[in-house]
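Appendix C: a fully annotated inverse folding record. The material below is reproduced so that readers can follow the format used throughout the book. The structure is listed first as tokens, followed by the designed sequence.
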């Protein structure tokens, strides 16, 4: 198993891609802590993992709040003894162009997507040092590489996640803490449904492979970065988008 003996925290793991990553990580031998605002859904994913023979714990986490992160990391260490892997996956999407983006929308999106990633990374460094290293995977987006007429604040937040990843990677490479970003294209989740329900959203025919992706297709890439198979990969960006940004 590719994550045997590892402990992973996945933010936003109650549904969508985060839940797919939690299930896959547990199948590969990791002990998984799911942190999310959605308690019912998060507990359900953790219970399903347990029924399938894996180990998982749900903790209520608000990624915009540093004390919430500290409690979540403490809970993971108390239950599983250490932290080896963090997936900063939680995010929100707001589908406004520049002039429609209010200051409130900008702050809300930057808070969850950019600040949440910063706070999550900051909160696991001490534990990863104790563990002798670690792997942090920041879920950015194709929207962190290219722009569009929509989602102005989302583009800015995902671009911030991309470069934050490289800055953290350089800073912690000497301590064997690797930091990489993943850039999904349109993937079939609730978030995509909220985007495609508004006119102008990406259609399957806009994507070279001719379809939306599935959460598992991103989870395989995240698994690679989480595992020791990617031991020489840091500050890198893995694009999983059916060719959309090609
Ligand atoms: P989703 O909306 O299905 O899941 C996001 C999860 O994050 C939810 O469970 C939500 O409750 C949680 N969350 C939101 N705010 C939070 C907060 N403050 N604290 C804790 N948890 C919070 O989305 P998804 O499609 O699974 O997206 C996962 C990641 O992939 C996100 O970073 C998203 O930006 C990125 N992404 C998605 C797509 C896509 O097409 N679905 C494309 C590119 C990138």
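Designed amino acids, in order:
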């Amino acid at each position: 198993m590719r994550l045997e003996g590892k402990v992973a925290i996945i933010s936003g793991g109650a549904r969508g891609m985060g839940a797919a990553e939690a299930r896959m990580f547990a199948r590969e031998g990791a002990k998984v802590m799911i942190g999310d605002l959605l308690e019912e859904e998060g507990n359900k994913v953790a219970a399903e993992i347990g029924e399938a023979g894996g180990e998982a714990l749900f903790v209520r986490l608000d990624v915009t709040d540093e004390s919430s992160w500290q409690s979540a990391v403490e809970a993971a260490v108390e239950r599983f003894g250490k932290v080896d892997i963090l997936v900063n996956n939680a995010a929100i999407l707001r589908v406004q162009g520049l002039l429609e983006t209010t200051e409130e929308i900008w702050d809300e999106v930057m808070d969850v997507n950019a600040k949440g990633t910063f706070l999550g990374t900051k909160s696991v460094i001490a534990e990863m040092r104790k563990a002798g290293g670690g792997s942090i995977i920041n879920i950015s987006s194709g929207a962190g590489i290219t722009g569009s007429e929509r989602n102005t604040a989302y583009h800015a937040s995902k671009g911030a996640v991309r470069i934050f990843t490289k800055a953290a990677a350089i800073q912690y490479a000497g301590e064997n803490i690797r930091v990489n970003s993943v850039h999904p294209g349109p993937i079939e989740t609730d978030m995509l449904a909220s985007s495609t329900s508004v006119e102008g959203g990406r259609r399957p025919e806009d994507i070279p492979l001719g379809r939306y992706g599935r959460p598992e297709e991103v989870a395989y890439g995240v698994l690679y970065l989480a595992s020791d198979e990617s031991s020489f990969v840091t500050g890198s960006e893995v694009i999983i988008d059916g060719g959309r940004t090609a």
